[in-house]
Amino acid sequence: MIRVLLADDQSLVRAGFRALLDAQPDIEVAGEAADGEEALRGVRELRPDVVLMDIRMPVVDGLAATRRITEDPDLGGVKVVMLTTFELDEYVFEAIRSGASGFLVKDTEPDELLRAVRAVVEGDALLSPGVTRRLISEFAARSKEPAAAASLARLTEREREVMALVGIGLSNDEIARRLVVSPLTAKTHVSRTMVKLGARDRAQLVVLAYESGLVRPGWLG
């Protein structure tokens, strides 16, 4: 059972998400929060698998709450998916840097929301379907100059290749087709790369790919 915490200051939004999620046999809403401070208390008390976190909330905003969750080693198993009204919200880039596993626009289709919640638990989710590559491109254009890539020395040549493909937004199936390997083999390479680099999830792997200089803006395709 996937346990979800809903954090949004609009009760109608929470009610809509709750109705959708609770109707699924493998998902349950463990709790709700109307601001970032409540979300933090709920996460520490309930230890949900996924937090659907609105970016703009009173008391403590979603970005600050996300940073505090992802920086707490005791909450390492909690995945945060940011909720935003606009696909390219200016805070989304900082949210991904801060450890969020991705983001969804609030008017996303129900099937996409359910798919995202299930996928992020598996470590496969990055961003809202349909805008992944566009957002990665925007992120890359705004990112800092690449830092020293010493950490990449831990990776095999194939793992670097896989990391670069993750960095340009390819799914495991797409990576498998590109490298002519099975999807399971591609997933294994991605998982091993994340472990070696200490990446929380796929989103953080993308950030590391850009910040290390392994992938540069304009390499989408």
Description:
- The structure is a single chain.
- The protein is of the alpha/beta class.
- Helices cover 48% and strands 13% of the residues.
- It has ten helices and five strands.
- The protein has a five-stranded parallel β-sheet, sandwiched between helices.
- Helix 7 crosses helix 9 and helix 8 packs across helix 9.
- The radius of gyration is 17 Å and the shape is globular.
- The protein starts with a strand and ends in a 10-residue tail after the last helix.
- Keywords: DNA-binding, Phosphoprotein, Transcription, Transcription regulation.
- It comes from Streptomyces chiangmaiensis.
- This is Response regulator transcription factor.
Q: What can be said about the biggest beta sheet?
A: 5 strands, parallel
Which segments are poorly predicted (pLDDT under 50) over 5 or more consecutive residues?
Answer: none
Q: Order of strands in the sheet with the most strands?
A: 2-1-3-4-5
The mean pLDDT is 82
Order of helices and strands: EHEHEHEHEHHHHHH
Give the key terms.
globular, 221 residues, alpha/beta, 10 helices
List the helices and strands and how they pair.
Blueprint: E1 2-7, H1 11-22, E2 27-33, H2 36-46, E3 50-54, H3 62-70, E4 79-84, H4 92-97, E5 102-105, H5 110-122, H6 132-142, H7 157-167, H8 172-179, H9 183-197, H10 202-211
Parallel strand pairs: 1-2, 1-3, 3-4, 4-5
